[in-house]
Each structure stands twice: as C-alpha cells, then as structure tokens.
Amino acid sequence: MPTTLPLPYDYARRVVPESADMPPAPASLRVRRAASSDLDDLVALELRSFSSDRLSRAQYRRHLDSDSALVLVASANHHLFLGSAVLFFRKRSAVARLYSLATRPEARGQGVGAALLEAAAVAARRRGSRALRLEVRTDNAAAIGLYERHGFRRIGRYARYYGDGTDAWRYEKTLG
Ligand SMILES: CC(C)(COP(=O)(O)OP(=O)(O)OC[C@H]1O[C@@H](n2cnc3c(N)ncnc32)[C@H](O)[C@@H]1OP(=O)(O)O)[C@@H](O)C(=O)NCCC(=O)NCCS
C-alpha cells in the first residue's frame, strides 16, 4: 500500500495543462512513495530528463526495496505519473541527500517539482534528518531557482562532477 505523505500545501488547486500526449487536466496532485508498478514510468522519465549519470532500471528496483532510499512519485488523479524524487539516507548521518528530482516535460512549470521538494523535506524530517543536501549542475537554471526559492543555500562546488565534465553546486536546506 503506497504511503501518502502529509503535505504542507494544498496541491489540489494546482492544475496541469492539457497537451496532445497528456490526458485531460487532472484535478489533484499528490506525492506518494513509489511502488514497483511505477518502474516503467520512473525509467522513462529518467531517460527524458537526464543525459548523463542516469539511474538504471536495476538501480531503481533496488532503491524501491532499500531502507536507505526513498523514491517519491507525484501523480494526478491517483494514476497520472507526473514526476519523481529520489532520496538517500545513511546510518548515523543526520544529513539526507536528494539525489534526483524530475518532472515530466509536459507538466513542468506547474508546481510538481515544488510538491516533490516539499514532500522530500517532510519525509527526511520524519526520518530524523536535520538537513537535506543535493548537487545540481551549475548550468541548470530552472532547478537552481527552484531550490533557492525553497530554502536551499549554496554550500560548495564540485569541479567536473558530472559525467560530461560539468561542475556541480552543492546545496543544503536545514530541516526545522
Ligand atoms: C527542475 C525540475 C524538476 C522542476 O520541475 P517543475 O515541475 O517544473 O517545478 P515547478 O513547476 O515547481 O517550478 C519550476 C520553477 O522554475 C521556473 N523555471 C522554469 N524554467 C526555468 C528556467 N529555464 N530558468 C529559470 N527558472 C525556470 C518556473 O517558472 C518555476 O518557478 P516558480 O517556482 O517561481 O513558479 C524540472 O525542470 C525537470 O525535471 N528538469 C529536468 C531534470 C532536472 O534537471 N532535475 C533537477 C536536477 S536533479
């Protein structure tokens, strides 16, 4: 049974636009823990969202079953897959890591990323994490803006962090 996370915002009022390859606008947006039935959607979104350092199907399958990972899915009307987030936890560490965040291209700019980000923070806090960290490509303006508007502050830089040689900014959010 998937877990529905309590979310701090009223996402039900967000509406995703209709487009040729999307069903009619869903009325509600919710974030839940991913299940193995989400594997196809998770892998398809990974392929469309990232050009390097992708998670494979086997990695997603492992993360779905792992205590040290949490995969979240944003969906509308209880079935329409809109986006995902991947969190990692380490024993004896109060810092959780947001490894991945992605929204289906057709649904971007409608608050799906924000909903996943808030749900990730809620989930990490519930597991006792005091901070959430992430890395983001220095050329990813949309993601950087989203993170900064959601309370993440820049804490460092990793040179040539990604497979294609791009640097990463490191960000951290303190979980109150
Ligand atoms: C980053 C990403 C997850 C955001 O998802 P989303 O569902 O569009 O997020 P939201 O709708 O909640 O917010 C997007 C915000 O970025 C803004 N934005 C969109 N494109 C932008 C751009 N090129 N430059 C700056 N801001 C941009 C939107 O206006 C919106 O701002 P708002 O919060 O003031 O309304 C999505 O763009 C994505 O999946 N990108 C590909 C994967 C990726 O890069 N993931 C992050 C690194 S792990």
Automatic annotation (TrEMBL):
GO terms for molecular function: protein-N-terminal-alanine acetyltransferase activity. SUPFAM superfamilies: Acyl-CoA N-acyltransferases (Nat). Keywords: Acyltransferase, Transferase. Signal peptide: none annotated. PROSITE patterns: GNAT (PS51186). It is an enzyme of class 2 (transferase). This is Ribosomal-protein-alanine N-acetyltransferase. It comes from Rhodanobacter soli.
